[in-house]
Amino acid sequence: MTLKLTHTDDRQLGGYAFFHQDGLLDFSFGLWVLLVGISLLVGAPEVGAILALLLIPFWEAAKRTITVNRISEPAITPAQRLGAARTRRFLASVVVGLLLLGVLLYAATTYNVLPAWVPYLFSNYFVALLGVGLTAVLLTIAAFNQLYTFYNHALLTFAAFLFGQAFNIPIPYILILLGSVVWFGGFLMLYQFMQHHHVHPHLS
Predict the structure, then answer these.
(1) Which of 33, 31, 16 is nearest to 186 (CA)?
(2) Cα 67 to Cα 3, 33, 34, 40, 189, distances in angstroms
(3) Composition of the chain by helix, strand, coil, percent to 5
(4) What is the mean pLDDT of residues 94-108?
(5) Domain range list for the chain
(6) Which of 22, 51, 148, 180 has the smallest C-beta neighbourhood within 10 Å, fewest atoms?
(7) CB under 8 Å to 128, separation ≥6 — which residues?
(8) Tell me: the pLDDT tens digits for 103-130?
């Protein structure tokens, strides 16, 4: 195989951003979920939001340190660009939808027009509902970007939250378990990638 010995711009990852066989995306995502679970457990939920802001810079720095020095820059396909654009629009719509749902629930509660089954559902099945919602998000992201490992993460998320609902396991513990498994899977992928792709002198 002929290596393409051109570097992408320092501020952009180019085709490397769409290469996920190195396991860094799974590693970073699992680590974030794990740390969010720990932050909720110790009563510091704001730390999770801060970590979310640091997730992408951490992933990008790891890409530049590990992946860029080992393989030539992959080409970006139109399907990958389309998938990334769809993912951004989807996540934006999820955020907007949650905000609108919050406003509607607040208004309905304020004016005492909230159906009785809604608070019953949230108070008794919140963990299961959260699991279904997170599973749907992960499945959509996986489908848009052909992230096959994220299908596994989605199924694991679904199973973990249903298990937590059935046995009254607090959400922080579910996230810690889930994050640990995803992080370890990403670590194994990363280890295998580094074993098969050594640092190339012309790319480092």
Answers:
(1) 31
(2) 14, 23, 23, 32, 12
(3) 75, 0, 25
(4) 95
(5) 19-71+79-196
(6) 148
(7) 161, 162, 165
(8) 999 999 999 999 999 999 999 999 999 9
DSSP state of 170: -
Token couple for 96: 């907007």
Ordered DSSP codes for 4-51:
---PPPTT--GGGGG--TTSHHHHHHHHHHHHHHHHHHTT-THHHHHH
Full-model pTM? 0.89
Instruction: Select from 181, 165, 92, 153 the least CA-distant residue to 122.
Output: 165
Which of 8-22, 63-77, 96-110, 154-168 shows the lowest per-residue confidence on average (mean pLDDT)? Answer: 8-22
Distance CA 67, CA 144 (A): 23
Q: What is the C-alpha separation between 8 and 165, in angstroms, rounded? A: 46
Judged by DSSP in three states, 167 sits in coil
Q: What is the pLDDT of residues 72-91, one digit of tens each?
A: 999 999 999 999 999 999 99
What is the greatest pairwise CA distance in the chain? 68
Is there a contact between 28 and 186 (Cβ–Cβ < 8 Å)?
yes
Which pLDDT score is estimated for 128? 97
